[in-house]
Design a protein that fits this description.
Shape: elongated
Strand order of the largest sheet: 4-3-2-1-5
Number of helices: 18
Low-confidence stretches: none
Keywords: Cell inner membrane, Cell membrane, Membrane, Stress response, Transmembrane, Transmembrane helix
Order of helices and strands: HHHHHHHHHHEEEEHEHEHHHEEHHH
Distance between the termini: 101 Å
GO cellular component, one term: plasma membrane
GO molecular function: mechanosensitive monoatomic ion channel activity
Structural class: alpha+beta
Membrane topology: Multi-pass membrane protein
Number of strands: 8
Main location: membrane
Largest sheet: 5 strands, antiparallel
Oligomer: single chain
Length: 441
């Protein structure tokens, strides 16, 4: 009220002064309004600058004396800058009836514009506060990997919707409830327009409640070419940064409607699976003679096993009177069986295999590409680069060790193999060529 009285006093003084100077009353009215308008603009600018510097400066000083991050986030999200705009707004509201006292028809439209600005300013302040709350929640362990952005977007949509209703009511002069009632007839259209938003909101709640995906999880969704870390979960999309540094955007709703793989369980368990086979050439599998067993007994990892097992086999064969002049009679060790035992012993003593998870070497069904010896074991380091290095080291060793057991790894003939075969003296090249053609057909 005091501000309004001051403006009224200034208005009377300037008007009377202009009239006393001999200016016509009609011209004095317009010039008086123009002078007051310019004065209000200057005061608004000065007040806005002063209040912004005062509030932001005080906030900075206060934040430096506290250990909490909340006040720092308030400053970063411009909460105090928006609050500083309230003071000049009050000044404008108080000055309008005085500046345009001689033009009453202008007061109502201008007052409506200030009311619209008040609604917008309120929305900006609330949004800044919501962003501050979101950023603060993300600094806490409880909400760091939760889709907080999704819920913030829903609140923002509701906030803008209510703000739009208020602005519509101010501009049209109709009640808010009248507009809401009119919108009831268009609810089907609204549901269609906001279908993705509604589905995304429901999906965000389900994803958060069921703890299906967190920010930072490694997920694989082959249908959409996603294979990497989740970097953002919002109302409508989930952003995945693939390992080639590209970004894949997936609709949030598809996380509950489609299938995807989350590697969090593997990372939390502390072990990553190796499941890979060595294809043994079947023609290289054989029984071991006594000389073979003696030679392989020099391999330290299976030395005790071979001595114990060979003693058991010898005692059994002697007790049964088995003729061992032919190795197929009675019990005998095979080179592939001993090789499996060697792999068992090797992975059991390996420093990077997880000793509390499944460790198994198994023989799979023979195929046209040989007999697979599958290694099923977990590494104790889940980091991708370390995992690949550990797996490569293990199979480097095993592939090099195969020949010590008189085994061969199956592989298709290469061009060099065929050229060497054709170049051998006495080779019937026409027969070989016919055989190759038959294989190709």
């Amino acid at each position: 009220m005091e501000t309004a009285n001051n403006f009224a006093a200034i208005s009377h003084w300037t008007y009377n002064h202009l009239v006393n100077l001999g200016m016509p009353a009609g011209t004095a009215i317009y010039l008086n309004m123009l002078l007051l308008f310019c004065l209000v603009l200057v005061l608004v600018y000065a007040t806005a600058s002063f209040s912004r510097k005062l509030m932001v400066g005080a906030a900075h000083k206060f934040s430096t004396r506290t250990s909490t991050q909340f006040d720092d986030l308030l400053i970063r999200n411009n909460v105090f800058k928006h609050l500083a705009k309230v003071v000049p707004l009050i000044l404008v509201v108080q000055a309008l009836p005085i500046v345009f006292a001689d033009f009453p028809g202008w007061v109502k439209p201008l007052r409506t514009l200030t009311d619209v600005y008040t609604v917008l300013l309120s929305i900006w302040i609330i949004r800044a506060l919501l962003r501050t709350v979101k950023d603060f929640l993300k600094t806490t362990a409880l909400f760091r990997d939760k889709p907080v952005d999704s819920f913030l977007q829903v609140v923002n949509i509701f906030l803008y919707f209510m703000g739009g209703l208020l602005i519509f009511s101010l501009l049209t002069g109709k009640e808010v409830w009248a507009f809401i009632t009119a919108m009831g007839a268009a609810s089907a259209i609204l549901l269609l327009v906001f279908k993705d938003t509604i589905l995304g909101f429901v999906a965000s709640i389900q994803v958060s409640t069921n703890d299906m995906v967190r920010i930072g999880d490694w997920i694989t969704m082959e249908k959409y070419g996603a294979d990497g870390d989740v970097i953002e979960i919002n109302l409508t999309t989930v952003k995945v940064q693939n390992f080639d540094k590209t970004i894949t955007t997936i609709p949030t709703y598809y996380l509950i409607s489609d299938s995807f793989k989350n590697w969090r369980g593997m990372q939390d368990a502390g072990g990553r699976r190796i499941k890979r086979s060595i294809l043994i050439k079947i023609s290289s599998i054989k029984y071991l003679s006594a000389d073979d067993v003696e030679r392989l007994s020099k391999i330290q990892l299976i030395q005790d096993y071979l001595q114990e097992r060979q003693q058991q086999i010898t005692e059994h064969n002697q007790a049964k009177g088995i003729d061992k002049s032919i190795l197929i009679n009675g019990r005998s060790l095979t080179n592939v069986g001993v090789f499996r035992r060697y792999i068992d012993a090797y992975i059991a003593q390996h420093e990077f295999t997880h000793k509390h998870m499944t460790m198994m070497v198994r023989q799979l069904e023979p195929t046209t590409t040989g007999m697979p010896i599958e290694l099923y074991v977990f590494t104790n380091d889940v980091r991708w680069d370390k995992y690949e290095s550990i797996m490569a080291d293990i199979f480097d060793h095993l592939l090099a060790a195969v020949r010590y057991f008189d085994l061969e790894v199956f592989e298709y003939p290469a061009a060099d193999d065929m050229r060497e075969l054709f170049s051998r003296p006495g080779t019937d090249n026409s027969t070989l060529r016919n055989a190759v053609k038959a294989m190709q057909n």
